[in-house]
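Record type: ASSEMBLY
Status: queued
Input:
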Amino acid sequence: MGKTPTKEPAKNPLFWILWLLIIAVSVPWYFPSKTYEPIVAGLPLWALVVLVTIVLYAVFATLSAYMFWR
Amino acid sequence: MPTAEITPAFGMEAPIVAIAFVAILIFVGYYSYKKRVGATIYDFFLASRLLGYFVLGLSLYAAQYSGNSFIGYAARGYRSGFVFLMYPAFMVTILPVLLIVASRLIPISINRKLTLPTDYIRVRFGYGGSKSVIEAILALSLVFLVWGTFVQFFEQAIAMGYLGEVISAGMFPYMYMVVVFVVGVIIFTILGGFRGAALANAVMGLVMLLGLVGTLAMVSKDFGSISDAVMVLAKSKPSLISTPSTTTGVINWFSTIALVGVGAPLYIHILQHVMASKDPSTFKRTFLFTPYFYILTATSLLFIGIIGASAIPGLGTMESERIVPLLVVNAAAKDPYSKVWGLLWLMAVLSATLSTAATTIIAISVTVVREVYRAVRPAATERETLLVSRIILALIALLAIPIVIEPRATIWRWTEIKFEGLIQVFPAIVLSLYIPWVNSKGVLSGMIAGAITALALTLSGTATVQGIHAGVIGLILNTVICLIVSRVTVKPDEIAYAKTLLTS
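Status: finished
Output:
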């Protein structure tokens, strides 16, 4: 591997760990299939959890650009 | 099957607003041309690396969100319900992938004055391997890159066809709208070039966001909120608000994230945006706001589709492609405020569609001119090349018409098909940025294996295997073969050359 003087996201294990973790949580495999209950705040709980994860995913994208890339 | 009723809500104001808006955009493009920004090839296509981060970010956003999203993906939300929450997820996945690509590609592009993905491939594999191997890699990459980008272009024409037909209550048929749109795009791009398109894209990005949020508010007011839709669907069609019904559905969710997340950053026009960045920090700053624009847009469109499923249920697959304009037109017929929002929405979709169409078609024409025409006529002058690129641009745009006159698949299916091929350039462009021992023989063998797999599965009617897309299976095989062949055949001087290039 070439040595680079700059910090790159792809070279940081934390970037990969957080990324895989957030993708894993953003897919609702951990909820039972074919269910929509309970409904919380007008949305099925599973969809709400996925939505919150997606917002965190966006925050991760911004932080990655600033924390892992110099 | 019930058919949707189209209320003629808009009179002449819809075409007047559309024409006036497009005229302003054409002026923005033409203004930049008059200022002689488009005088040389380099200027014409790369805006001389002058784009600031806000314009660059908005332009990238407008290029990623298109008529497909505004028409086709909301329609997929109508058909699939909350399971299509994969949509905001795969859109935001594009960003970390872009980050990985950009953090290496921008410095190399600036140092070596590279402007096109094929420039990078040529430089990266131009040492050590035989000439025929590098030519074959370039030819195959060209096919995938142009294919993916061209489908993205003609999807815009399909979206515009549906839109015009519904908004005009059938007065302007689908086919007529497709032709008007393609001709409009040709004029728009020839007058402005990349800078014109990028500036206009930034304007369009803002209009899109505003129009979209307004549309969600309007649709919620007239047809009930997303929570109301959940209550209705819980009784009438619970599958639309439920978790995926099988393990295959869950696997397909992951596969879709991989397919689009890896594929979308590889469009020629997106790579061109990356390579056009003034410096890494300009590109980095776009991440301050684009992730939120991405998820807000995708989630709003999904919600509009789901509200549509509760308000106008029972549309067939192809008919549901018109769900968003149907909702807007029906809302506009109900009250005058919605009519105003409806006109803003019209400008938003025009923006999304036109910005993507313009950038994709420019990207294709410059690539074809550089890789094909200049190879045949290396002595061509700048002036001649620019003229030929405009002719090619017009020809390629016109080529879309016979394809979309009869849309054989939904916009979403076209999206899958385009990415099945496009992602096969991943090892050539992304792996090769980080692994110095990835060589031309490895990339070529992998690409051939991946392409044959994806193509064979798709042609045999196997879109997915256990939920995994044909293209993703092809890419896995592609990557494994690329790594094995590279490892076995790479020579020390090839590694040394790649290391120097990648870390310069």
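Annotation: The CA atoms of residues 33 and 58 of chain A lie 26 Å apart.
Annotation: The mean pLDDT of chain A is 90.
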